[in-house]
Amino acid sequence: MSRTIKPSILPGFMELLPSDQILFNQMMDTIRDVYEKHGFNPIDTPVIEKEEILLAKAGGETEKQLYRFEKGDNKLALRFDLTVPLARYVAQYYPELSFPFRRYQISKVFRGEKAQRGRFREFYQCDIDIIGNEELSVINDAEILSVIYNIFKTLKLSDFTIRINNRKILYGLMAELQVKDSAAVLRSMDKIEKIGQENVIKELKKEDISDANISKIVDFVQQKGSPEEIISYLRGMGIDNEVFQKGIEELAEVVEYIKYFQVPQENYTIDLTIVRGLDYYTGTIYETMLNDYQSIGSVCSGGRYENLAGYYTDKKLPGVGVSIGLTRLFYQLRESNIIKNESSTLTKVLVIPMDRSTTGYSIGVTKGLREAGIVAETYLEDVKFKKKLNYANKLSIPYVIIIGTDEMTSGSLSLKNMLTGQQDQMTIDAIIKEVQKP
Amino acid sequence: MSRTIKPSILPGFMELLPSDQILFNQMMDTIRDVYEKHGFNPIDTPVIEKEEILLAKAGGETEKQLYRFEKGDNKLALRFDLTVPLARYVAQYYPELSFPFRRYQISKVFRGEKAQRGRFREFYQCDIDIIGNEELSVINDAEILSVIYNIFKTLKLSDFTIRINNRKILYGLMAELQVKDSAAVLRSMDKIEKIGQENVIKELKKEDISDANISKIVDFVQQKGSPEEIISYLRGMGIDNEVFQKGIEELAEVVEYIKYFQVPQENYTIDLTIVRGLDYYTGTIYETMLNDYQSIGSVCSGGRYENLAGYYTDKKLPGVGVSIGLTRLFYQLRESNIIKNESSTLTKVLVIPMDRSTTGYSIGVTKGLREAGIVAETYLEDVKFKKKLNYANKLSIPYVIIIGTDEMTSGSLSLKNMLTGQQDQMTIDAIIKEVQKP
After folding, report:
1. Contact A344 B25 (CB under 8 A)
2. Phi then psi for A93, rounded to 5 degrees?
3. Who among A92, A98, A375 is closest to B395 (CB)?
4. Cys bridge to B247: A200, A308, A316, B169, which one at CB 3.0-4.6 A?
5. Rounded CA gap, B69 and B419, in Å?
6. Does the distance separating the beta carbons of B346 and A45 come in below 8 Å?
7. Which among A28, A29, A67 is the top mutation candidate for probing chain B, defined by the most B β-carbons within 10 Å of its own β-carbon?
8. Contact check, Cβ <8 Å, A48/B121
């Protein structure tokens, strides 16, 4: 070799050692399993899409972050989310799909963001959406919330709150108060937890809103209480704006059905401050907070949109969905020591032949363990015994079976528990039972 | 929306409907499961690498096919295989890894190939490799073969043959026969099944090889028989070239250990014609053929290499591994009707409320099914009954539970088998038992 290139990856990309990768995959498998149990089906759109497909929806910051390139006559780009590919997919295969169309996709997306700690340029999104044909019952909004609940419960991140709100209520309120720049006002409202009441009032004053209306807004965003209490407050506000009233009805129906989905009341709340930045939400919106780690921000967000695929089809396709940014979530949970890796390998048993004379026999023992469903491997290198045991130690393999000529002859094997150091002579059947103990 | 963009993807990219995606994922899960059972651990390298990392190894056709682009000050490229990222990974994290390092990676790779039927520009590779530190026993070559065996056995593609050969034998033979352009001769040998003996002889004549040596080569590539017979033939060739002899010893050791791994003799063979195009193989090489579908070509290939990461480190890292090009394999199996999709959904039971008055109760029934491990969903749209049943029919959902007021009151539910049309009143427990029947 003439020269050596320093082995490294680009900044802003996550790459894990096997110990963390195992942990990451466990989380991803859990999310996938919950999605599938709920009857969401997989799709896997290409990483590379036609540039025009992605640009139809991009714009602003997203367009700047897009990885774009050419190859042959084609203008290409890497997907920046999974929603635009979903819209394109549903429009493209519309005649072949059944509606409501329930799909999940767990895939990497790409954004050429400014490098920052905890922000990634390549990251996994875990998305579910339910897409209706022309119509989609608001009960689906309650089901999506129940899926979020089941995900975080199964991930054993149990102290979490799913916050919901409804965009129609926000838009209706803005219309009622005749706010000119409603986007700016909503942004201010969204920040009340971060910057406090005083600063929100300051920002609202700049927007040329009367003191009476500012009071109304501040009162509105500060509502706390049970879902029923908040709905009752909203109904009592005396705003007969049609959109506002529609929003209350949707929210009330979602709350009613959440009970049937048996989501405990401690795990969800109506939070009138949440707004969600994305323009296309038109009804229910979701954010999910880990209560002991609020600084992480929302770990699962989404909402209801009236028309998914207007750029690609004339069909009206309303939908509701959420997304988990798994790469960032994993990074934050690891940084905060909320999750910890336990082993550098999936292997539960290492079978060590004392020397070459027992290697063949050891391979058979390993095969028997595997057939019983145990992840096992044979140490195949012809090195000193200490080095073999070292391999098990370094990877934190919980059990080692040591096989010399005696063991091979008698069939009574030596099982060493690497955690306790205990070593026993056992039959292969007894070993399988011992290792399979939960 | 001002304009509608035709929803489409680029040519040369695979995208599946859910029915096929479910099938594809089942194959991918099987491969992953077999890899993991054998103690291979997951890694997940970035899709985007530094251009210089990939260019170190690329060159020729690969370099032309590379998707390259710039963002900010960085020169980027999409990985074209999983071996180069593995080499970079092992060199980069060398101090933190345990050797032999057993890893698998199942990920998409990207090649801007000329568009052709059955060739893809974005496709999954499923790779396993075992990397040694300085040394790696040739027994690992036998283990890799046993992993291939277990994969295709578990995929129920049972009539397959893993062909093995050893590059040292080929190089040794070329040296012994003083062949000038050994690459050209090996390419000709590799083609004997396709183009026949006469044409191979023609090609060899062009290479300025004596008639006596041509006879030797033709005799060599036409050897058939048991592994023992072929090894005995090789030993009897009277070639005392050192590399050739080393190759025979390696091959004999692999064959000896394959027995301990209990791979049936019908599933592997020594095939002296296989060569594998990639330069870096230095010992055992593998190809896997589906016997009834030889035209598909090798569905799992790989080999032994003396030094994985020479471009990125001075450490000597020998390894052995194989790769399954899953996207292409899936495409070919589907085209040939070797595999068939059975359903457009993972859902086993659709719970249909007759109307809104039983929707809440139905949601509870669905939850009960899910808790018993059954993929279930509630039909939530308020439409005509026929349309609800149609949804189940179109997706081939095997069971439907219909819930009216009577069912809600009595707790005796109506289970309809959508395949047979049979409908029975049953308790939820009886339904769970019925649906879980294998």
Report:
1. no
2. -105, 15
3. A98
4. B169
5. 52
6. no
7. A67
8. yes
Q: State the best of B2, B3, B8 to mutate against chain A, taking most chain A CBs within 10 Å.
A: B8
Cβ contact (<8 Å) for A72 and B18? no
Share of chain B above pLDDT 90, in %: 84
Interface test with A, best of B3, B9, B261 (most A CBs within 10 A): B9
Rounded-to-integer distance, Cα A298 and Cα A164, Å: 12
CB distance A75 to A55 below 8 Å: no
Distance CA B153, CA B263 (A): 10
Chain A environment of B360 (Cβ under 8 Å): 257, 259-260
- A228-268 residue pLDDT tens: 999 999 999 999 999 999 999 999 999 999 999 999 999 99
Residues near A82 by Cβ (< 8 Å), separated by ≥ 6?
Answer: A45, A105, A107, A109, A125, A127, A323
Phi, psi of B292 (to 5 degrees): -85, -5
d(CA A400, CA A415): 6
Taking CB atoms and an 8 Å limit, are B380 and A21 in contact across chains?
no
Least Cα separation, residue B405 to chain A (angstroms): 16
d(CA A323, CA A262): 22
Does the CA dihedral B124-B130-B133-B138 come out positive or negative?
Answer: negative
Q: How far is A238 from chain B (nearest CA, A)?
A: 30
Q: pTM of this prediction? A: 0.96
Q: Which chain B residues have a beta carbon less than 8 Å from that of A37?
A: 370, 373, 375-376
- Average pLDDT for residues B122-136, to the nearest whole number? 98
Residue indicated by tokens 């949804």? B391
A7 and B98: CB-CB below 8 Å? no
Give the chain A residue whose CA is nearest to the CA of B97: A17
Q: Cβ–Cβ of B311/A1 closer than 8 Å? A: yes
SS (H, E, C) A275-324: CCCCCCEEEEEEEEEEHHHHHHCCCCEEEEECCCCCCCCCCCCCEEEEEE
CB contact under 8 A, B381 and A68: no
Q: Enumerate the residues of chain B whose CB falls inside 8 A of the CB of residue A346.
A: 36, 39-41
pLDDT (mean) for B12-39: 97
Q: Which of B10, B44, B310 sits opposite A48 (nearest CB)?
A: B10
Helix axes B167-176, B242-260, angle to 10 degrees: 160
Q: What's the CA gap between B283 and B253, in Å, rounded?
A: 12
For residue A319, the distance in angstroms to the closest alpha carbon of chain B comes to 13
Q: pLDDT at residue A142 above 70?
A: yes
Q: Could you give the CA distance from residue B82 to residue B133 in angstroms, rounded to a whole number?
A: 20
B8–A53: do the CB atoms touch at under 8 Å? yes
pLDDT of A278 > 70? The answer is no
pLDDT (tens digit per residue) in A349-358:
999 999 999 9
Beta strands in B225-280 (DSSP E): 268-270
Q: Tens of pLDDT along B280-311?
A: 899 999 999 999 888 888 999 999 999 999 99
pLDDT recorded at residue A68? 95
Tokens matching residue A9: 């990856």
Which domains, and CATH codes, for chain A? 24-45+82-335 (3.30.930.10), 349-436 (3.40.50.800)
CB atoms near residue A159 (< 10 Å): 12
Q: Calculate how close chain A gets to B175, using CA atoms only, in Å.
A: 23
Please indicate whether, in this complex, the C-beta atoms of B137 and A382 are within 8 angstroms of each other. Answer: yes
Q: A242-260 and A167-176 are packed helices; what angle lies between their axes, rounded to 10 degrees?
A: 160
Closest CA to B311 of B54, B109, B34, B106: B54
Query: How far does CA B50 lie from the centroid of its chain?
Result: 26
The 3-state DSSP class for residue A163 equals: strand
